[in-house]
Amino acid sequence: SLSLSLSVEQMFGARTSLQCLAVALTVHLALVAGEFFKPFNVSYDHRALIIDGKRRMLISAGIHYPRATPEMWPDLIAKSKDGGADVIETYAFWNGHEPVRGQYNFEGRYDIVKFVKLVGSSGLYLLLRIGPYVCAEWNFGGFPVWLRDVPGIEFRTDNTPFKEEMQRFVKKIVDLMREEMLFSWQGGPVIMLQVVGQFLISVSV
């Protein structure tokens, strides 16, 4: 016969390990499956956001994924949720994702897909601010350095070269989110996109 004798500490440790394993397995399955919610619609009626037919007042927390390592993301997301957040807000960092024109980086700290999936696996929504200008004390406002060498370009204005480059990057991010099934109508956590935030328009009078 086999007898087992476990102390309280051992039993607690085993239980904790099993709980951690269960959480890790749940997150892994969610990341593999790629669907975190039942597909739902998001709209606005001038009073509130309407998510899946219900008005919601949402609390967001900002986590800029490149400022931390991927190993830190789950803990940051969990702490945001524990603090009452419903939504994680982040920019997409153009100069990190396209350091050389046409050469994209979505690995390591810039693995935006992994970050968004972790948010979804935690049961939170995501507001993705594609920019392209990053007003977050980020080097060069998130613009890649090569952008300044585009002939005839003028940043953040009604300028054809700028708008063409901006459109190309925005489309890249939107297509990536759609391909990975990360929009709300696909069962993903992305409920809103923001383009050209914190933009001041002034006129002479």
TrEMBL record:
**EC code:** 3.2.1.23
* Entry keyword set: Glycosidase, Hydrolase
GO biological process terms, alphabetically, are: carbohydrate metabolic process
The chemistry this enzyme catalyses reads: Hydrolysis of terminal non-reducing beta-D-galactose residues in beta-D-galactosides
Going by the entry's taxonomy, the superkingdom of the source organism is recorded as: Eukaryota
An annotated Gene Ontology molecular function: beta-galactosidase activity
* Gene3D superfamilies per record: Glycosidases
InterPro entries in UniProt: GH, Gly_Hdrlase_35_cat, Glycoside_Hdrlase_35
Please indicate if the UniProt record lists Flavoprotein as a keyword.
no
Family, according to the entry, reads as follows:
Belongs to the glycosyl hydrolase 35 family.
Q: Which PANTHER family match?
A: BETA-GALACTOSIDASE RELATED
Name this polypeptide is given: beta-galactosidase
